[in-house]
Design goal:
The protein is mainly alpha-helical. It contains nine helices and six strands; from the N terminus they run ααααββββββααααα.
């Protein structure tokens, strides 16, 4: 898939530069040359950024759970895990029922949600403990911190440490695809409407195909961007939002979309568009995930009377 992505990028770049930007910079009009030179710089910068973001997303670790990670400060907190799987399941079902019955305005609703979301969790496949919001990735055969999903286009899992570069890749790829489709529109119209037999067929056919897939990718990427910005605003992952029933109120909300945005992109505005995490931000994310207290659920599920 990595080779396919670079192939598509190269094809679109060839079409744009061959039929639009290079001829435009060779125009006899100075102002036209200047305009196309500026457009070439903007387009080249967008392509360079999407390639940088893509490489970082592919190569960067999503954040695996350390093998020696242990959630309990007090050994007595493990007591509810000493029961069989059926008992633990009944405890969790009791909490889910209590959450459904509690009213959103009730303060205990948030306490129940936080306790449920930060309960101790044991991965049966890895045979080790995993922090809250971590999930097992069957493709990597590892538990990943704040796992979002496995992306076949990246050949990598999207998790806590490469989620920022993944979202930035979507944004830069969308901008580059829109620019490509707009720039290739006129050559494609000329190719379709022309009746001349001396036109270079294959180069123009490549331009037409590039226009079709860049325009299609633009629409698809806009949908993905809207979805992930909505998740960022709520501090949710794709797994938490679509594969499981979200807990209300959401216990991982930092207090509004602005703080949730800072949680992913950091507080330095100069680094928002770059697919890198500063050592300080990386350390903060790891500490929040690995040093978060794991709250054990009581041995018996709460009743409606307690809620």
């Amino acid at each position: 898939m990595v080779g396919m992505v670079f192939f598509l990028i190269c094809v679109a770049n060839y079409a744009v530069w061959r039929h639009v930007l290079i001829p435009g910079m060779g125009d006899v009009n100075i102002l036209t040359q200047l305009g196309y030179a500026i457009m070439s710089f903007m387009y080249g910068s967008c392509v360079a950024m999407l390639v940088w973001c893509y490489i970082r997303t592919v190569l960067d670790s999503p954040g695996e759970v350390p093998a020696a990670w242990y959630p309990f400060e007090d050994e007595s907190q493990r007591q509810y895990l000493q029961h069989d799987d059926g008992y633990r399941k009944s405890v969790l079902e009791g909490y889910e029922q209590a959450l459904e019955q509690a009213t959103p305005t009730d303060g205990s609703k948030f306490q129940l949600a936080y306790m449920y979301a930060t309960r101790p969790r044991w991965c049966k496949k890895c045979r080790k403990w995993k922090p809250p919001r971590s999930h097992h990735c069957s493709m990597m055969n590892e538990c990943v911190l704040r796992m979002d999903h496995y992306c076949v286009w990246m050949v990598n899992t999207i998790g806590m440490l490469n989620y920022k570069s993944f979202v930035l890749f979507l944004m830069w790829a969308c901008i580059a695809c829109i620019m490509s489709a707009v720039l290739l529109f006129k050559p494609c119209v000329a190719f379709v409407t022309s009746t001349s037999s001396i036109l270079p067929v294959w180069p123009l056919l490549i331009s037409f195909m590039s226009f079709v897939f860049t325009a299609s990718f633009s629409l698809a990427l806009i949908g993905f961007i809207v979805m992930h910005w909505n998740l960022i605003a709520k501090n949710m992952t794709t797994i938490e939002a679509y594969e499981k029933v979200p807990i209300t109120p959401w216990p991982h909300d930092k207090g509004g979309w602005r703080e949730n945005f800072f949680d992913v992109f950091g507080r330095d505005p100069y680094g928002w568009c770059l697919p890198i995490l500063s050592p300080k931000e990386r350390q903060r994310l790891l500490e929040e995930s690995l040093h978060a207290p794991a709250n054990s659920l009581p041995l018996y599920p709460p009743t409606t009377a307690h809620v």
